[in-house]
Design a protein that fits this description.
Strand content: 15-25%
Number of helices: 7
CATH topology: Rossmann fold
EC number: 1.6.5.-, 1.7.1.17
CATH class: Alpha Beta
Family: Belongs to the azoreductase type 1 family.
Shape: globular
Number of domains: 1
Enzyme class: oxidoreductase
Subunit structure: Homodimer.
Structural class: alpha/beta
Order of helices and strands: EHEHHHEHEEEHEH
Largest sheet: 5 strands, parallel
Radius of gyration: 18 Å
CATH architecture: 3-Layer(aba) Sandwich
Distance between the termini: 10 Å
GO molecular function, one term: electron transfer activity
CATH superfamily: Flavodoxin domain
Length: 207
């Protein structure tokens, strides 16, 4: 198993998504002797946002890029190579203001690239993902109960976005593990964490 862990929380010691990701990955490692693990921490070290030069370079074939263009795509190329290396993804994605952290959005803007992670056919106007054959789990803490299907679920732009953007590049098996109600009292918070932990341990046994 080749696993890429992507952490996007700006918190470290108090991060629920980081703590549960660590437990889940440890369980996977114990059951897979051929386990290989890389971490991309965009929460503490976010990639640069695309710029006008980045965008221009992205839409040119490699042989037409200047040295400056090739250089500005270096970080994106490295992140894409890392993504394509993995066959499993674990994403720690705390919900910030009903969506994904801006650090994760910057990462996704770097890896969703034409002819690298998706193609476009101008004749049929269709897109095709290139990052196929992978599975992903997203661990998603939130302040309240914004789980899709609940009364506040329509304010959850995090889960649908993750499924859509990962599916767009070919990662269609996406499991969302919610950890709601993290602004509630301690007993409720810990109940939600325990439920998510049990869910993750069950997934680790079958993933």
């Amino acid at each position: 198993m080749k696993l890429l862990e992507i952490q996007s929380s700006v918190r470290l010691e108090k991060s629920i998504s980081r703590a549960l990701s660590h437990e889940f990955i440890e369980a996977l490692q114990n059951s897979h002797p051929d386990f290989h693990h890389q971490q991309q921490d965009v929460g503490t070290n976010p990639p640069a946002h695309p710029t006008e030069l980045w965008t221009t370079a992205n839409y040119l074939p490699p042989e037409s890029r200047t040295l400056e263009m090739a250089t500005i795509l270096t970080e994106s190329d490295r992140l894409i190579a890392e993504l394509l290396w993995a066959d499993r993804l674990v994403l720690g994605v705390p919900m910030y203001n009903f969506s994904v952290p801006s650090t994760l959005k910057a990462y996704l803007d770097n890896i969703v690239r034409v002819n690298r992670t998706f193609t476009f056919d101008p004749q049929t106007h269709t897109f095709q993902g290139l990052a196929t054959g992978k599975k992903a789990i997203a661990i998603v803490p939130s302040a309240g109960n914004f789980v899709v299907g609940t009364p506040l679920g329509e304010m959850n732009f995090c889960d649908p976005y993750l499924r859509s953007i990962l599916g767009f590049i070919g990662i269609e098996e996406v499991e969302i593990v919610p950890i709601p109600n993290q602004f509630m009292d301690e007993e409720i918070r810990q109940q939600e964490v325990a439920t998510a932990r049990l869910n993750l341990m069950n997934l680790a046994a079958s993933w």
